[in-house]
Amino acid sequence: MKYIEEFQDPRLAQRLLDEIHATVTRPWAMMEVCGGQTHSIIRHGIDQLLPDQVELIHGPGCPVCVTPLEVIDKALEIASRPDVVFCSFGDMLRVPGTGRDLFQVKGEGGDVRVVYSPLDALRIAQQNPDKQVVFFGIGFETTAPPNAMTVYQARKLGIRNFSLLVSHVRVPPAIEAIMRSPSCRVQAFLAAGHVCSVMGTAEYPELAERFKVPIVVTGFEPLDILEGVRRTVGQLERGEHTVDNAYPRAVRPEGNPAAKAMLQDVFEVTDRAWRGIGTIPDSGWRLSERYREYDAEHRFAVGSITTEEPAACRSGEVLQGLIKPHECEAFGTVCTPRNPLGATMVSNEGACAAYYLYRRLGGPTAHKETSPVG
Amino acid sequence: MCLAVPGKVLDIEDRDGTRMATVDFGGVLKEVCLEYLPDLRVGEYAIVHVGFALQRLDEESAQRTLRLFENLGMLEEEFGDPWAAAAATPEVGR
Amino acid sequence: MAETIQAAPDLTAWTCPAPLRDQPKVVMGHGGGGVMSAELVREVFAPAFGGRILSQLGDSAALTLGGVRLAFSTDSFVVRPLFFPGGSIGDLAVNGTVNDLVMSGAKAAYLSCGFILEEGVETRVVAKVADALGAAARAADVEVVTGDTKVVEAGHGDGVYLNTAGIGLIPEGVDIAPQRAVPGDVVIVSGAIGVHGVAIMSVREGLEFGVEIVSDCAPLGGLVATMLEATSDLHVLRDPTRGGLAAALNEIAAAAGVGVEIQESAVPVPPEVDGACAMLGLDPLYVANEGKLVAFVPRQHADAVLAAMRSHPLGAGAAVIGECVEAHPAMVVARTGLGGTRVVDLPIGEQLPRIC
């Protein structure tokens, strides 16, 4: 068992697809919360294989996209300082703040480095005692424990030239915000498997009950996604709304207790702004009082930087399936994959970028269109 | 969010008081922190994200899931799935 | 919990960040071999230089001089680290330029070599690079006939930068160019993809990982000669370096105005490349190669060319991966293992490790 190829088997995928096709009787709109799942869906062409009645709405689970403009501006300010080595996951480098991005800071002489793990940043701090090493701590519940452990280690080892610029976000408050949005048409959620590997599933039954939506914990390989869809469709067709775990090999109900304990120690829940959405109460983490001295915002006194989010494209409506991408005035004119206005055009998995690409394909292989709200 | 991949623990050592492992991702070896899965053993698989093992992969559960997929069609063929059949009927009628 | 939430946010106002692509300053992506590189050439260099030959934007230029058909190409090398598993900047400097020539069917003959050295770099290191370069030239059966050396101040270079240029003779009856791809052509790749890129990444600071594969860096003159023995009617050859197979196929599709369709399961990807890509969130189709080629071959010659490739050590792993089609001109589409399709787009800039 390698846990990868086994869950990509085309023969078993066909069984799952047959079952989904046989089960569905009417249109359903479900949201995969996680950007990683969106990636997998596009990468394997899964959306084209599902029945027309099954609409996948690509959710907000991309930490890169939801990191607020203001935090990016703080990162750019810190990374521009001559005494700073600014470390980040690769995907954050191309996210623009006001007028520039980390690539440009690097181009202007800033020491910006891509690392695989926050522990790599801590090692850079150990090797460069005369530099301030800052790690850009973004991500959901999956990425928060690694970042928490790194701050914990810095404190334990007395590495004082390390700090964390924190912009962590949490999934359950986002699900709640989506369900409370006045125009919401999401009828079920494929919950993010790896978030649940850490946090467990205890936060979800209340949400499923309150909003009467099935929540199915779903993995990332093609068979996992199909199984998540199969179970979701089953619940919707039967009129049920329970929390179901379609990824049991990696998700236990209690999650990872050691990681949760570390999160409790290092972070505390706080309101957090989501780029383009606004502030969602209790939707993020910041460093707790005990670790405040490792907070880059305090160390570099960038707390005073405030940035207003500019009004831009209609990606919010696209994200919810309220309009098709081409119904946006900017689509294909001022907004293209080369010069995107919004997240839905930024990455290849974005609804607008995918639509842009597949529209050119035409014919029977064209990207499946989603029906507008009826 | 969360690009996390399965890897197999090859060896475990204590470094600066931190439990670290060499983990094999299909022939690619990477140092991984085991602090969140302290009882993970050599030979076991875990989900790894940005250099941290976050959850043990349960082989029995994985096998069970695959068996379930394997049996999906079979159940229908052998016993018929009245609910699925009922659902499919209007489609056929149209 | 629910009571603490005030007004529900209205997601209709949702916007997300857009990367700044109209860069006022050069960024790394301009050298990534993707959309940004192409724009720099198209919008800055091509208009400045003009010229019919340059506008063809091939890997090498095909020239007729004194009644002789020549291929001419240049390439610069800024790789870090200078020495990596399976090769060095010296090997790349020879094989990169030689392969650019070879992709027009030429037999590479002579190279120039420019060294840009950083003040303070050890002469021992320079000598080691030069030795590697000399050995690579002998292995590729080309001669370095002219050169240049410049030194820049400490901090203004990465130790050693190299530039090579090369010329070669294009044999009679051979006409290989991206524009010649036509629907019906069979697309063949000469072996496992992504090997060089993964070997380099494995030793890059911040990403280091252990892997038992080494760069595939190699001169492809012998392989192409073997293919030309099977038929002189090869339509297109391309070495998928920066931007990987995806960039090479997109460039061909755009140049010829044809569609390209590949079967993802047919593309040879070694398990280590798969593993590294899974770990870093990369797509093997976009990872660099330095000793592979992709060929567009008329269907009636495909079997013979494939057999010829497999008879050569550098083509032993050759495989048919797809075909050239009339549908979706200038686009590359992959059929996935599950039977779905996805568009394989030209990369924008560099492929970065992602967590999302």
Automatic annotation (TrEMBL), chain A:
Pfam families: HypD. InterPro entries: Hyd_form_HypD (IPR002780), HypD_1 (IPR042243), HypD_2_sf (IPR042244). Keywords: Iron, Metal-binding. The keyword RNA-binding does not apply. It comes from Streptantibioticus rubrisoli. Belongs to the HypD family. This is Hydrogenase formation protein HypD.
Automatic annotation (TrEMBL), chain B:
It comes from the Bacteria. InterPro entries: Hydgase_assmbl_chp_CS, Hydrogenase_HupF/HypC. It holds the Pfam family HupF_HypC. Belongs to the HupF/HypC family. PANTHER family: HYDROGENASE MATURATION FACTOR HYBG (PTHR35177). NCBIfam families: hypC_hupF. This is HypC/HybG/HupF family hydrogenase formation chaperone. The lineage of its organism: Bacteria, Bacillati, Actinomycetota, Actinomycetes, Kitasatosporales.
